[in-house]
Predict the 3D structure of the following.
Amino acid sequence: MSSHPARPATAPTDPTAPAGYRALLRNREFAGLYVSFLLTVAASTVSGFALGTLVDQQTRSPFLTAVSMYGATLATVLGALTLMSVADGAHPRRTLVALECLSLAGVAAQAVPGLPLPVRFGILVLLGFFQSLGSGTRMGLLAEVVPHASYALARSLMNITSGGTAILGYALGAALLRFLTPQQLFGLAAALTALGLAVVAATVRERSIRLTRRPGLRQTWTTNAELFAHPGRRALLLNLWVPNGLVVGCEALFISYDAGHAGFFLAAGSAGMLIGDLTVGRLLDAAGRRRWALPLRLVLAGPFLLFAWEPPTVVAAVAVFVSGAGFAATLPLQEQLLALTPDAVRGQVQGVESAGRMTWQGVGAALAGGLAQLVSPGTAMTVAAAASVAVTLGSRPFVVRAGRAATAAEVSGLRPAPRTR
């Protein structure tokens, strides 16, 4: 991965940016990337729910069930640290189509009846390994098919609607499991993946993304070492990764906690995320987002403390909904991280942040699932939530200092220069 992300040579530079979401959707290539992304999210939620249900039925193990739903994210960091340079290659459309084909083959393989669980987990890890590469390729193409000034608006639309798609995916999976087997749900996920592949192939044209320097492991590791050497960036990454991951660990126990209402809980959490993103991203300015960062991080974990008393289903769903809104704390923390990042390495830093956040989702699921082997799922959720709160409060002084440094950098218009080695 290069530490100097290249701006595509053919990237649009028209200063007249689309006025809103409708104008973006009139761009045929963006619409294709957007629709294929939503189909991918829908397929992922349906297949994840099917695999979690299948593993729970066969093993009755909270640990294996949690890992089956979120374990693929553990492999994401490997792809981000070793293969991300492929996303900046000369044929990004070809790369994305190939990755969609790989995903289709993997999901279709999960639909095979009687497939041994080790094989299912092997497929899960393989797909997770390439997940970061697919995301990087998609975002690289996105930067080319929309005007530069509209990139943030395009990302906002994709992030917000992915939450709604996840709600539908979980709700659909839970409803269809009353009539279909998990293998048949995998078949539905494969159909959604195939449709996404067809949309990309029909709407996105090939483009050429040229590297400014040769990527490699040495350059990637050098930039990552500099990233973690900065105390402010370390504190922000800690808060972006660990509290989120521990709460995702709570969510990974929904099937073990109450299999009959797990889809309802997952949909409630996704709805909370959607509302939180809309509120924080569109209604608050940068200063407001920073003021709300700590309360939102506490809202993220606090509601799961109720599960120690095994609340009624409706109360539990409301708690999960409120918790989902707390994920919006990610936005102000990301803004501060970018303010403390040299322009020349912002692409790699964003990749590391994203991969680390997804990896910690898998870590959180594994930790919570392992604990649930020893205590009840509700107790395991409570412990994970309490640990999330402890990390947030314990690191608060360091995050405050990082926020002050970020504000100073934005006011002065200067960014820290990367250290030469």
About this structure: The radius of gyration is 21 Å.
